[in-house]
Amino acid sequence: MAKPNKSPRPKAIAPKGFRDYFGTEVTERKAMLDRIAEVYHLYGFEALETSAVETVEALGKFLPDVDRPNEGVFAWQEDDADWVALRYDMTAPLARVAAQYRQDLPSPYRRFAMGPVWRNEKPGPGRFRQFYQCDADTVGAPSVAADAEICAMLSDTLEAVGIARGDYIIRVNNRKVLDGVLEAAGLHDTDEFAAVRGIVLRTIDKHDKFGDAGVTALLGEGRKDDSGDFTDGAGLGDLQIKAILGFVNAHNAVDSRLAQQASAIRDTNPKAADLLYTARDYASPVFSGQHALRATAGAVWNENVLNYLNEIVGESSIGFEGVQELRAIHELLKAQGYSADRIRIDPSVVRGLGYYTGPVYEAELTFEVTDEKGRVREFGSVAGGGRYDDLVKRFTGQAVPATGMSIGVDRLLAALRATGRIGSEAEGPVVVTVMDKSRMADYMQMVTELRQAGIRAEVYLGNPKNFGNQLKYADKRNSPVAIIQGGDEQERDVVQIKDLILGTKLAQSASLEEWKDRPNQFEVPRGDLVAKVREIIESYS
Amino acid sequence: MAKPNKSPRPKAIAPKGFRDYFGTEVTERKAMLDRIAEVYHLYGFEALETSAVETVEALGKFLPDVDRPNEGVFAWQEDDADWVALRYDMTAPLARVAAQYRQDLPSPYRRFAMGPVWRNEKPGPGRFRQFYQCDADTVGAPSVAADAEICAMLSDTLEAVGIARGDYIIRVNNRKVLDGVLEAAGLHDTDEFAAVRGIVLRTIDKHDKFGDAGVTALLGEGRKDDSGDFTDGAGLGDLQIKAILGFVNAHNAVDSRLAQQASAIRDTNPKAADLLYTARDYASPVFSGQHALRATAGAVWNENVLNYLNEIVGESSIGFEGVQELRAIHELLKAQGYSADRIRIDPSVVRGLGYYTGPVYEAELTFEVTDEKGRVREFGSVAGGGRYDDLVKRFTGQAVPATGMSIGVDRLLAALRATGRIGSEAEGPVVVTVMDKSRMADYMQMVTELRQAGIRAEVYLGNPKNFGNQLKYADKRNSPVAIIQGGDEQERDVVQIKDLILGTKLAQSASLEEWKDRPNQFEVPRGDLVAKVREIIESYS
Predict the structure, then answer these.
(1) What is residue A287's predicted lDDT score, i.e. its pLDDT?
(2) Neighboring chain B residues of A19 at a CB cutoff of 8 Å
(3) Which residues of A touch B96 (CB under 8 A)?
(4) Chain A contact for B149 (CB, 8 A cutoff)
(5) A59-74 confidence digits (pLDDT tens)
């Protein structure tokens, strides 16, 4: 009788929403992060690595408040009753560190952090519960020069990893401008309007999704969605709603103005009119003009946007301050050569406006890709950030100015793949096959020589009986070359070199002229092994 | 009346047993891991990065079996009732991956993994609950050539990170030799002796701690410790105990034999006797002979050890196999130039013998350090590993041969610090000070020029009012140079360059001859800024 199976075999599977990364998936990401770290370092930023685990108390109430503190994060209770959790971003640990070590850290403190973060969310296609973040922040710098520096660094970073100038734009907005618009609409930053301002901020964030009509409804009487569900509105009046939409749609408003101006002077000053038309094009997603033109037209655009914002904030001092800050960032960056071809003042950046307290920025890749549904679209956002001056306050009671950004590591990697900058199959090692098990020392001597010459190499360590399996293995490893030495070759002190790349090329196109006289397997003296292998590898690189 | 403090401020502190790593602590570790990864890659190993989280089911019963599955690991229950946990090493995830992707991975599969692991243990001084591991394993290679390869790679790795040849030794043992000794002592690998063999394995592991007397007691009648507590013994007879101690103390036995042999031939063949004496020295911890001598003497030592082991395993076929494997590893490595000066056959490697199923290896650093209590001692072990052929079996039912090693990242870093290879203070950025807040664009232009020339630089972004604070900041940042440009300098189109390294040197020793004619602050034309700063930095590097 068979024994009852008391402990069934465990399932060999990663937990739901977690995945494994193999070979080049790991090394390509690492190479990208290395390049980013070089730029950060050049800018004076220091590495910081906090542990994956933080107290729930230090992380704060960042996520929906429910019975258990681990909604949205992975949390568990320690034996001594403290709750701890895996970090869900790099900002919360920075806040804790900035407070914990405030006596010892230099001020301002520029730091960067790279590593995994965890979200206890429902996983979906391409949506994982562990992913990389790559942040840089400056804590303790009140001046917008710090914000400008982050924008310049973001620009340098994108170019360092391989995004060409002209293929990205860094869009800058300012929460204070929105505050000014709200003040101008009578919604002052007082307890009386706190609730309604909150609704407005959340609603603006959804402009991408609901459009003007949806936002108008939500700011006014309320909105009924497709399923018939009704969401209460903020109860604002028409003029208030118009003012807020005037901010969100600043892009369109400025565009119309430029069109009108251009039209008015087209006959009298066609050159100036052209520049205005180009400025309109500049701010459209698919502008493909040259850099110089981009910078000139962009400067016109930015200037017009700043003027427009100055108007819509009316008499609001916070609004005026916000526009001044945008202008300062624009000027500081321009002085360093980061012109409008790379940096755009852009009030349509609304993501995170509810969270940030000053300048907000977002890096967008402007080249087109074809998505999984075959639609051509702009690649879109790969990084973002802003100023959040309340970072350390919850720990110490003292406000500490801070500004910083986070790069979406997976998005940026996808962008580099989409542009062909990375993703070609990595070259495998040279494989030394085993013809005679008892001569393993000879084969290992060959790989040692190759490695000492800096050539990636390995001896076949599986069961050598079936030679076909050894070549299949070399194929699976994407090996450029296989080395063969049987008894006959050993006696004659030679080795067979099999050019596997050529083999593949010939298999793909047997008549390929350029390869036809080149043998894909040949014999060389044992002493020429390293030189010959190097020659083959270099011929393909 | 003051409001009651409803939500007290959270404590800004990392959870117990977790720590933060700043600046060079991060970058030095990264640089070391990068060098290790280069060697692994050269050997044909592929990167693998699994997520931090595994199912408790996949991790297995690796730790004391108690009520909760999270004793020893950090574990929590998912909403759907599955328990998941943070990985506690890199081997358990490898086993899961090797089983999950067995159809797709090349076989043999050489992989390396680097990253943090977590242990839910009581933290202590220098003992943390998150730390780095750095592993390399070959799955699916039955031949000891795979073990030899790991040893060679470990040797190359140590030298690549900066441990000099002669400052380390890789000690190799084999579980099968111990199995042979047990068989020779009548303790066969059958159900009958399973329990007592288990006790023997656990007892041998404690030889370092309890010595011969303690091990003799534990293998025999039992042992009373200092507190009076009694531990039951394995109940072995004197001859059995003697045989087992003969294995554990093989080192001493071989040493005595060499002494006897040398003494016997001292007068007739003094040269050969000298070699035997040197062989004894070779295996002592503090041998400081030259490499060539080390290799020759080591070969004599290894040969004598192998002969001795052959004797003590008697008629046992598993024991004979074990010795043959050690000999094969020795020969394979020697043929590749990894002689006895780097690899030593050493039966006193007992750590992990209960876990591994074949060859076991351990890398020991042989130079001396002074510990925190002022005692001079050998640095000791920094890496270890071995063959464990049951890795994948619990998932698939099929035994898969596997061998690999793990480097103690923090230990190795400590060793590099102890030898002065790393740990010198990293150079900070050039600091451009701010004399006039309204001229921020000028100062930012200076740092941009410096950065574009590859010089790490930053503008002071704190409140610029107190100039002394700016210099204190530069000092805290370990800046080599500070740049100063007030209104007067601007008018004359010059900058002041303050050589902070020289300043420190002069402060330390005002009469230092070599510096006395060098000014530590001077003026240069604005156009010479980058060239002059580079000159200063290079003069110190």
Answers:
(1) 60
(2) 51
(3) 12-14
(4) yes
(5) 876 544 344 445 688 9
Beta-strand relationship, A53-55 and A83-86: antiparallel
Residues in Cβ contact with A283 at an 8 Å cutoff, skipping those fewer than 6 apart: A251, A254, A255, A298, A301, A344, A346
How far does B244 lie from chain A, in Å, by closest CA? 33
Tens digits of residue pLDDT in A488-527? 999 999 999 999 988 777 777 655 566 666 788 999 999 9
Structural element, H or E, at residue A405: strand A402-408
ipTM of the complex: 0.91
Residues of A in contact with B130 (CB under 8 A): 51-53
SS3 category, B174: strand
To the nearest whole angstrom, how far is the Cα of B92 from the nearest Cα of chain A? Answer: 11
Measured CA to CA, the distance from residue B306 to residue B173 in angstroms comes to: 10
DSSP secondary-structure letter at A479?
Answer: -
Q: Is B184 left (phi over 0), alpha (psi -120 to 50) or beta?
A: alpha
Q: Torsion-angle region of residue B228: left (phi > 0), alpha (psi -120 to 50) or beta?
A: left
The backbone torsions φ and ψ at residue A388, rounded to the nearest 5 degrees and listed phi first, read -140, 95
Contacts of B340 (CB under 8 A, 6+ apart): B282, B294, B295, B296, B297, B298, B299, B301, B302, B330, B334
Sheet order of strands, B402-408 included: A21-22, B46-49, B109-118, B130-139, B402-408, B376-387, B359-370, B168-174, B343-345
- On the 0-12 / 13-18 / 19+ scale of CB atoms within 10 A, B324 is middle
| Lowest-pLDDT choice from B66-75, B311-320, B420-429 | B66-75
Contact assignment for B441 to A331 by CB distance below 8 Å: yes
Question: Is the confidence at residue A371, as pLDDT, over 80?
Answer: no
Q: Which of A88, A137, A90 is nearest to A109 (CA)?
A: A137
Q: What angle do CA B373, B377, B380 make, to 5 degrees?
A: 115
Q: Which residues pair with A522 in a beta bridge?
A: A497
For residues B62 and B51, give the distance between their C-alpha atoms in angstroms, rounded to a whole number.
19
Q: Which of residues 417-456 of A touch B (CB under 8 A)?
A: 428-429, 437, 440-442, 444-445, 448, 451, 454-456
Rounded distance, CA B10 to CA B241, Å? 59
pLDDT value at B93 more than 90: yes
Residues of chain A neighbouring B76 (CB-CB closer than 8 A): 70, 74-76
CA–CA distance, B313 with B325 (Å, rounded to integer):
14
Q: Which of A47, A58, A106 sits opposite B26 (nearest CB)?
A: A47
CA A514 to chain centre: 41
